[in-house]
Amino acid sequence: MKYCNQCxxxxxxxxxxxxxxxxxxxxxxxxxxxxxxxxxxxxVPIFKNEVLLCLRAIEPRRNYWTLPAGFLxxxxxxxxxxxxxxxxxxxxxxxxxxxxxxxxxxHANQVHIFFRATLEKLEFSPGVESLDVxxxxxxxxxxxxxxxxxxxxxxxxxxxxxxxxxxxxxxTIQ
Length: 174
Hints:
By secondary structure, the protein is mostly beta strands. It folds into 2 domains: about 1-35, Ubiquitin Ligase Nedd4, Chain: W; about 40-174, Nucleoside Triphosphate Pyrophosphohydrolase. It has 2 helices and 11 strands; from the N terminus they run βββββββαβββαβ. The strands form 2 sheets. Strands 4, 5, 6, 7, 8, 9, 10 and 11 form an 8-stranded mixed sheet that branches. Strands 1-2-3 form a 3-stranded antiparallel sheet, with no helix packed on it. A hairpin with an 8-residue loop joins strand 1 and strand 2 (about 25). The longest helix has 13 residues, at about 80-90.
């Protein structure tokens, strides 16, 4: 971050007083620019014994399957973000259940949160970030063509945990 978003002056990378980490600090106004992990929210949408997956139209991992998920926007709750991402990527509004998984993705400075979800009807289509959207039987998931490890963790959790098990999975990926 070269310039301060508060006053436009040049930032420098220093350890601020009473801190332990290098931060971007404005040379003009002294504003400290903290960089924190991004939140990714998504759903594991189930209809009967099948899960809806999206074929990515964007990088990273274009042409790989993923759960409907993406970055949380300012002003959204986790649930609102998960619903919005399902609507954007697969053109359906899920019925959200409880949180299924929370995964710390340390190397990417992200936290991924997935909710159990159901489709009321088999009405969906690719959104602008998806090349295709398809239902897969839970015993025939394209594991080798899944875009992200966090999606695999959430899917495995959905398969392993009965629907009335409300204890979320917590995992860390270095």
